[in-house]
Amino acid sequence: MSSVIIKPSSSTLRHPPGPKVNWMTGTVSRFQKNPLGYMEQLVQELGPAVRFRFFAHFHGYIFVHPEHNKHILQDNNKNYTKMPHPSFVILRPLAGNGLLTSDGEFWRRQRRLAQPAFHRQRIASFGQTMTQAAQDMVERWLNPNRNSPTLDVEQEVSRMTLEVAGKTLFSKDLTREANKVGQAFTEVSQEIVKLTSAPFGIWTIRMPFVPSTRRILNHTAVLDEVVNGIIQQRRQNPDVHHEDLLGMFMEARDEETGAMMDDKQLRDEVATMLIAGHETSAVTLGWVFYFLAQYPEVREKLELELAQVLNGRLPTVDDLPRLTYTYQVIDEAMRIYPPAYVISRWGQGADQIGGYDVPANAVLTLSPYLTHRLEEFWPEPLRFDPERFAPGMEQTRPRHAYIPFGSGPRQCIGNSFALTEVALTLATVCQQVRLELPANHQVEMEQLITLRPKNLHMRLHPRSKS
After folding, report:
1. Could you give the strand order of the β-sheet that contains 150-152, starting from the edge strand earlier in sequence?
2. Rg (CA), the chain
3. The pTM is what?
């Protein structure tokens, strides 16, 4: 996928190119069938800036060039909000007014409150919990009484990362709730994605009697039961001090009014962190295991690094700076399949992006998935090659050509948490076992709120300890 920014030579109003579609239905049917595939087609045919008519006279914009990302996410970020973008309106029943969906001064206050929980020293203290959860998972896999010849790897790593999120962020063991939470989140994600690409989704989500909205609310209620249980359990023991994310939120007071967060706001923040705190790590791990099975030479190089650095022992956070190739593997997996594959923004005021005029109240879509496949910056973009991230290689391309966690002030607050967890898990697992795909087994890309590997069933092969 090649790219070039076209700058108009005159000062006349100029829109990005767009596809020829039915004047009434626009691109609705194309987006409903395969939203990411259709966006990729548009960028391939029209370039890195696209204007499309979604329905009747309603227009949307796609921008995927690194300079577009830099302008929208960093340089002029105050002009680009999350609300009232349709995607975030539809996401509100699940995420509420938490960090994922809130805006303005309220978001800045909540971000400041949460930031200490994700400082490097705090994340380092989580390392032992992360490694132990990974080791427990490997021991379950190696249990001789395990019945199935294959592992549902996506489900397994999701269970593990949910356990880590519960223990590190909320001091709560959620192992027993893992299946219930995982299933509910999958179901609500499927419904939300369907509504996001539907012509009347933004209105449908406001109607609780509509079947799709009712299903979203029912599945969200399952998550609420777990989240509210965490909060109520903490409320019942007010004298016990917890130095975790939930404790920080519960003790925080508004600088002007002195008011503390009510249970509704706590619910929104806990739900957001619970979902985001495990989903990104689980999805990334799934894709890494998939690629290691597809590229044995990469797997062998990774195993060699682990043997040289760890010599058979379990990893700690102190080992991570020396696991350079391990991080290259993780980065390359997130390049091809970034968990957060689209970034949505609402343009409040008129602006000019890449030489194109964009009106106020514009619906914008950025896509790390598409940016990471631009041939101008990533030759042979579909080839899995961790050497793209070898030391010094980042200087050969623009900073915003690689944005798996977004960029600017709203870059994912948990990026270091996720990378630490994935690296420690890989170092723990790959020393002891290999995961391989059965012959002719097809793994699919599933477009939910994150970009999941679907049908990731793999065979387990214990490694020799010699």
Report:
1. 150-152, 457-462, 433-436
2. 22
3. 0.93
